[in-house]
Each structure stands twice: as C-alpha cells, then as structure tokens.
Amino acid sequence: MSASSHLTSRVATGDPARTRHISTTGLLALFVAFSAGIHAALVPEHLKEMPPLGYAFIAAAAIGCVLACALISRPDDPRVPLLAGLFCLGQIATWALFVTVRVPGFAGTPEGIETIALVCKAAELAAVALAFPLALPRRPSSASLPSPSQTPGGGSSSLSGSWTPRPPTQVIAGTSEGRSSTGTVTGSAR
C-alpha cells in the first residue's frame, strides 16, 4: 500500500475530527518542510560568508526534513508535533538573536533582516500555531459530556463542571484491589 493511499484510507473513515487532525498534521508538515527547504537553499551562501552558520543551516534543513517525514508517517503521535513546534520556536528565537545582537563565534552578526528570512519565520510561526494544539492533550468538549437530564436521576452531573482526573491506582500483586497514592483502598473485585 502506498503512503498516499494509506493516508487516504485513514482520512476516509468519515470522522470529521479525524479528518481535521490529519489535515492539520499535513499542513504542519508542509510548513516544516518549507522552512527546511529555505534553509537548504541558503546553505551555499552561508557556507561562504560564515561557515559555522552554514553548518547550522545544514543541520536545520536535515532536522526539518526528518520532522516533516515523521509528521506524515506518524500523524497520531503527539510527540512529533511537539518536537516540530519546539524546533520551529527554536529557529525563530535563534534568528531573532542573530539579527539583534553580536553572537560570539559568528562574525558578521547581527545580520540584516532579509525578505526570505521573514517568509521563513512566517512559515515557522504558522507551524508553531498548528503544532501545539496537536501535541497538547485535549479536554473533553462540553458537547461530549452528558446533560443533567441524561444522568441517572436527572440531577446534576459531576461531569457538567470541569473535568477532574481520578487519582492513580496501583495493582497489588496477588489481589485485585487498587490502592490510591495515599494507600486507601479504591475498589475490590473479589
């Protein structure tokens, strides 16, 4: 099965949220790859002017390509968008540093602000805006929570307010009892 038909079959499940997630991940991959391409295109110029910066551009292009491929091949892994977002934030912060102050070891800094750099930073900023919502856990939407009339007894539901996680439980070897982190018994299935 080709990569495109695999992606198409995963999107064709009919779930709009799933389709939106896959589309957003693909768009994120596009922005990261676009940034990597710009960095790759600027390698020769930077190797001539400031060789250490040229090597940094090679690394940025390679890391961006790897992240874009990982985003496409692992669209459900929240760690990949997180890495992509952090990487793009790092790219933006590094660029801001290079155009505002003299950086030791890099003659010719601060650099001038060029149009291609602004285009690249815009793509990276868009990538950051897409990456973190994909990477951070989602709270249950109010639409997915039962209304008070749907709860047993028709009264108020503990789910109608904010969501509160249950305390972690430990399984005790040889029993089916769970104990909370405070040591109290949380349940028994004897």
If you had to describe this structure to a student in words, what would you say it looks like?
- It is a single chain.
- By secondary structure, the protein is mostly helical.
- The chain has a domain of 121 residues.
- Helix content is 57%, strand content 5%.
- The protein contains six helices and three strands; from the N terminus they run ααααααβββ.
- Strands 1-2-3 form a three-stranded antiparallel beta sheet, with no helix packed on it.
- Helix 4 packs antiparallel against helix 5.
- The longest helix is centred in the N-terminal third of the chain and has 26 residues.
- It is elongated.
What key phrases describe this protein's structure?
elongated; three-stranded antiparallel beta sheet; 3 strands; 190 residues; 6 helices
Rounded average pLDDT = 80
Work out the helicity level.
Answer: 55-70%
Quickly give the structural class: mainly alpha
Strand order of the largest sheet: 1-2-3
How far apart are the termini? 48 Å
**Count of separate DSSP helical elements:** 6
- So what's the overall shape? elongated
Helix-strand sequence: HHHHHHEEE
Number of strands: 3
Strand content: under 5%
- Biggest β-sheet: count, sense, barrel? 3 strands, antiparallel
Gyration radius, to the nearest Å? Answer: 24 Å
Poorly predicted regions? 154-161
